[in-house]
Every structure is written in structure tokens, then in C-alpha cells.
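cache lookup: miss for this entity combination. No prior model stored, computing from scratch. Input as submitted by user K.M.:
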Amino acid sequence: MTQAAPELTPEQVITAVLADLPRHRGVVVDSPPGAGKSTLVVRAAAHIAATGEPLMIVAQTNEQVDDLVTRLCDKHPHLTVGRLSAGGYVTPARLLDLPGVTVGTRVQDLGDPDIVIATADKWAWIAGRTWPWAIVDEAYQMRSDKLLRIAALFDRALFVGDPGQLDPFSVVDGDRWSGLSWDPLQSAVSVLLRHNPDLPVHRLPVSWRLPASAAPVVSRAFYPFTGFRSGTGPGERRLELTTGGMGTVHDRALEEAARSGWALLELPNRHTVRTDGEAVEAVALLAARLLQRGAVAGSEQGERPVTADRIAVGAAHRDQVAAIRAAGLPPEITVDTANRLQGREYDVTIVLHPLSGRRDATAFHLESGRLCVLASRHRHACVVVARAGIAELLDAHPSAEPVRLGAPVKFPDGWEANQAVLDHLARHRV
Amino acid sequence: MSLLTSLARLRAVEAGRAQPIATVRHCHLSERPMVFIPLKLAGEAAAPLAAMLGTDRDAPRLLVVTQPRNRDLRFAWAAELAGVLVPYVESFLGSTETVERRNADPYERALDAPQLLLPNRAGVAFTRLLGRSTRFRRTDGPYPVPQGVPLLGRWLTYFAERAAYPGSSLAMAATEELARHWASGQSALEDANLAALVAWITTGPSDEAEDPLVWPPAGPATDPGFDAEVLAPAMESESAERVTEALRTQLAPTWRLMWQAVDLLRALEPGAGVAQRWEQDRASFSGMAAQIEEGAPPQARRDGAVAAAARLARMERAQAAYDVQRAYDDPLVMAEYRLTGEAFAGEVVETVPDNTEGEGRSRKLRPLVVVKTDDPVRIPPGTSLGTPQRRGQGAELVSADGGLVTLKITKGMGRGRTPTPGAVPEPGERVCYTSLTDDFQGAPALPEAEATPWTHGGPPPAYVPADEDAVEEWS
């Protein structure tokens, strides 16, 4: 395995990946949050297209596909791209004007583009043609049964994804398959690597998104053996609040976040229902105050005000998201679950801690990927709202999942990752 | 646990009695269910100790392994069990109906199917183990087993697998079905105790449920006190009668509880979707019987890559359909979705029954209905809706604002220029609409097992039955 040492520059890693492509049937690239995964996909796509061989790209959601199409056309306008879609898909306006892009529900309708791109679900319906090359984006979000359905379509593939994000899941109990090397509930990459252990695995070493205040925390908690560093140094990212505060706890939390990149707004210890009214109100107030105080973000990309569309609010459950939305936030602020925030980037995030107010810590709430997604969406600062007592709750609920024979041990342990993040947040408590 | 179930549990504690969380029965209950209570020897993975079973509450059959450490006696017991279970299963194969299928040959479906009722989830798991330890055995060659044992193993395996299939009623755990219809004031873990759960539903919680002398555990594990003080001395005495009578005392109380559970469930009206799911059960049962008939090998120990993905897809679809059907069948289940904003109920305040869209030949009847509701509606405009009141109809949400929801009926209006009477709800009618619908797209095809791709380990080796199949380290 060619493990990228932290000293490697991103450029060296990308060069090594492209060099490995013709040498192996599959190449895996692990990418921590904001490490330029999409840039790599676009570069690799152009690289393969330049050889004149057709390429298929697999992404997981329609938004991801549309994003990739836009980026591809932006960087390489000479490439022709065919976007396969399902019947009910409405082509977004931003795709309609792009040169070289055709949209269709059948491969035949697309002409013969350099690149054909679709979601994994759509690819599963395609048969009768193979491609010499494939790029699978967000491969850690993809369930291995989806890969099984499309693997016959390509000869060689590049798999790109973030191993720290949420594992794929199912509404049915999959215990009967745990431990099998082809467990359909495992991610596409884990199944691929278990059957092909000699495939090269590269790792992008630098997070361009996370600031210097966040990269070490996230790296240590969620990527304990495959650390990464931030692309910017301490002090290069600044968050300033242009108007004065009134000294309320919300203002102090925002000031702490602006100063240090993190803040924990701790509410009194209480067991609550999932849609904890006080916590929801605190989250909504923080978002509103952040806008009122006229935050300005300064970074390597210059100074710009933190507008509503640069703010995200994250929670664990859909009903929490609905409750926060109902609390009256400006509609431009993104409010969503960890699941849907995967792959997105904002200046400031406000997070309702998944364990806040809970009486128990289930596997769902302990899953390290959930907290990892919530804690790694921001370029400048992250404010966490939580009830006190989470550390005690964790102590009362050590990971008690049964150990299955043959199932690979998953790192990091959710319990430990939660403790590590909490430990760090405690230093920024208001 | 959902909000309504939590509330029902709190109420159960307050009232000292389990609270109903369903208005109809969501499982099929056979006219002639086979109640099956297995017991196993403590400390062994799959050493059967006894079983009480039968379809007549007044005539249980008790089968006992008088010395479970003796493998010959175990398989003699399995043969006895096969003598009861297999004829029961096969008795349903006689009367069938021919089912026509689109794009496939017609097939024969049994008119009724067997139903195995077990006390709890652990009983189902033990049934699976029993199936695993018997289905690969052979009646000839080294270590032969009596006739009927391998066949029993295949049926037990089948039932245990169906128990994990969402919405199937071929094999059910009594505690699970009761807990689906009543919320007790205890934890889900405690609900797995049949005696405690039945007490909550019938007479109120009682400490006796915890007392192994009054209510012995419902199996498959036995009470350690009984093991040490009664069972061990009986076995040492080598008196078959003493062992049998000792085990009867452990099984008879659970037998009574099982039939009490049957009565409780039978008192509920079946939901509208139950018959449809039972039809799928009957089809599955007929398919299994046909496989055995054709001499297919026993079910594999593990699913291959393709088989696992196919099973997962089937189960996910069944789970989704089961959730939707239960909500449509039962206003109490629908209430959960009303709380989360995926459904709303209210009174029709205004209708435009002859609203049309399109011109000329493509002119279609699209009646508009305005519903006044107090429910929080979190369904975006344009979403397809269904309603339990008019199953054949489909609607689309036009707008939702300030407690007034406007929707457009888009499916099931026929070709007429005016709607047939009753097709459009009248003002004043109470209706419920939901974004849950059970018209699922079919799943995309999977490769053949022989074409398993390189990412999943390539094609698996073909199965060749061998004497070693019968060897299980733990049995």
C-alpha cells in the first residue's frame, strides 16, 4: 500500500493517484473533510478523458451529480458530458445553459459524450455497455450492494470518499450478514478492499476547508491513524463581529467562537424530548444573532460578510430540523440533518449536539460519523448547543454493541470520538 | 420509541394496565396455528431439551430429550418433532389455486399456509439453530440421522427466516406481536418476558411474572434454579418419566400463556392489509414447498454476495410496504405520521369537483379539495399524497398555509367529465392524507451469482454436498 505520509503535498498525492490508475484495477483515495475531493475527481476525469477513452462517473445523490457536472464544465469546457437521470428529474437551471452537457434518461439519448455521469441508483438500471474507466465519488456513502449492481459496467475504477462520514444504513436488521466480506450494508470501499487487499489506498493530506483551530481536533477525534492538517495556519482565518454584543450568553458564545473557532453553549442538565424547546430556541437565537452582529469572515479568499447562505444549522434527527426551521430562521440559512449536510461547506455552523438532553446513548447517537459531519462543515467557526451532562451520559453508556466474528473493527470508536470532541469543547464553554 | 408509544407507556404506568397502540390486528392469525415452545439445555448452543407443541390447546404434545448430551437421543427427538411438524406443514399443500402472472408462467399457490407461534425472539433464534444443526444431516453415510430430520431442518430454517421478514406472519414471536399492539409500562427488554407482558395486558403488572416457580421462563433457556434442583437430579436418576414430568411443569404454564396471547390477538379485527400480506406468505410457502419438491439443496449456511443483496432489497421493500400499510389500516399508527408532519387529517371545507387541466383530448379531471387541519403539515408542494379513505386515488399537495391545505386529486378519477358520486370528498367530511404511498419502483436487476464482479470476490464456487456438511463445531 502506498500510504501518503503527512509530509506529502496534495499535488504529490494527486500525481501518485493518476500514475496508479493504469497500473491497478481499482484505486482508492481517502479524503478528509474539505480536502479537495471534488477537485481530484475533476482532475482525474479530465486526465482520463484526455486519453480518449470513455469514462463513467458515479455519485450518490442528484445534487452531487449536478455539482460535479457544473464543476467539470467550469474547469474543462471542451469536454462533452452526458448526464443520465431518472424519469422524474427536473434539470436545474444552472445545468441548462452549460455548453457540452446533454441530459437524458437513456444512454442512447446522450450521443457519445466523453463522460457519462449519473447517480448509483440510476446506473443500476443501465446494461448492455461497458466503460473502460469509472470514477466512484463519495464511495464511503455508497452501500456495497449498489456497487454490486454496477460493477460489471466498468473495467477499472477510482474510488474517492471520506471514510469519517456516516456509514450507509438500512431500515432492516442486517445482522445475518455481519462478518461476511460482501456484507451488503458495508460501504462499497470496505467490501472492495476486503476482496482486493492489494489495491493502493492514497490519502489527501490537507483540509482546505477546516481552519487551523478545527483540523487538529477533527483529525485526532475522527481520523486517529490517518491524520491530516489544515491548509491555512493559525490566524489566517478570522471571524469578526462588527457590532457590539449585549453580553447575553448567546453573544458570549458567538464571541468565543469568533475568537477561537469553537464554542459550546451549555444549557442546564435535563432530560428532554428530542425536540427540546429550549435547545431549539437557543440554536435559532444564535443564528439570528450571528446575522444581526454582522459577522465578517476574513480568509485567504479575502474578506466577506457571513450572509445567511453561509450559515448552516445541523441536528441529528429530522423532527429536530423541522422544529428549528419552525422557530423562525431566515429561509436562506441551511437547516438539515447530518446525513444531508455531508459534503457541504459553510463559514459558520451551529450544531445541536446529538446527545443533548438524552437519557441514553444509542448506537445511532454514538456513531462517530454523525458528529464528524456536524463538526467539520465550517471554514471559520462551529457553535455547539448542548445540555450539560453529556460526559456523564457517555460514561453511563459505554459502547455495548456486540462484537461480530469476522466483522472488521471500526475506527474511530464513536464513544471515544464523542469524548474527545466534548473534551475539546469544554475549553470553549460559555 | 415514538412519541405516541412513549405516551402510551406513561399512561400504562399510571393506569396499571397496558394501553392499546393499534386499533386493528396487523398480523394474520391462522385458524389452526402451531404453537411451538422449545427448550434447550443450559450451556449448550443447540442441544434441545424439550418442546411443547400442537394446534389444539387442550392436547399439547410434549417431546423430551431425556439425556440431551447424548446426540443419538437428540436426533431421535428431532425425528419425533419432524413427525409432528412436517405433516402439519404438508397438510396445507393439498389445496391450491392457480395464480396468473404477467410475463411469467402461472403458478400454484396454497389456499392456506402453516403458522408457527413461538413465545419470544430467543425462541425464533433457537429454531434457526435447530434448523441449521439438522438440515445438512444425511440419512445415510457417516453419522446417519433418522428419516425426516433433514427435511425438518429445512422447514425450521424457512420459518426462522420468515420470522425476520417484515410483515410476514408465517412464524411469529408472541411477545413481539403483543408489543406491537399494546404498550406496557415496562421497558422493551422486560416486554420480552411473555408472562409479564400478558399480565400487563390482562390483569395488570404482577411480581409473579418474575417468579420462576409461578411462571417459569418461556424458553428456550430454563430457570437455573430448576436446572440445579430438579432437572439435574432427575437426569441422574435416569428415569425418563421423572425428566418428562419435570419438564412438563416448566412448559405447561407457557403453553397456557401462548393460547392467552392467541385469544388476545384474535379479539382484534384484522387490518385491511393483512390478507394481502398473508397472500404473499402463502406464495412464499408454496415456493419453498416447490423447491423441496424439485430436490433443491438445503438453504446455504451463508448468503452469497448476490443472494445477500437480493434478500436485503426484498426485505427493505417489504419493510417499507409494511410500514405504509399499517399506517393506512390503523388511525393510531397514522397518528404517528401526523405528529411528524408526514400526514394530516381534518375536515373538508371547500371543493372544486369539476376542476380540469389541459385542453381538448388531453383535458383531465383534477378536482381540488381544501382541508382544514390542526396538524403540522411538513409536506412540500408537489408531493404525491394518498388517503386511507379512498385507496385507489392519488392526490398532489398544491399548497399548505395557516391550517388550510389545498390538494388536487390526480389519480383514480376515471375518464368522465364530472366525477362519479362519492369520488370527491364532500365539504364537512373528515379526511386524512399522507405522503406515504406504497407504489414502489421495482428494484434494478442484480447480476447472476456466476457473474459476481471482482469487487465482490468474483463468482463463488458451486455447492457440492459432502459428508463434512453435517459437521458443526458447536452442535
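stored under new cache key. The first helix of chain B runs from residue 3 to 15.
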